[in-house]
Predict the structure.
Amino acid sequence: MTQSIPPESPQTPEGTPPSDDDATLVTVAERPTEPAATVLVSILADAGIKAVAVGGFTAGFVAEAPGWVQVKTFERDAEKAREIIAQIKAKPHDF
């Protein structure tokens, strides 16, 4: 009996985006508080980018190493997310 091994990267029909299950999350920003990260997640969502805030549970605790909340997107959306974040930094009053 032979067993096939799936390819390392998913093969999708041309023009079809890969499934979110096959995507890698990358950090596109860090914020000192969960509310600040949540605002950024909402702005990215308005632009059609799925994002999550990770690490908020420890961000408010006083400890030797303060926690930061990471904003993560799928790797395929990271460049667009970073462009939006750069626009926010350049003109924060527009957001």
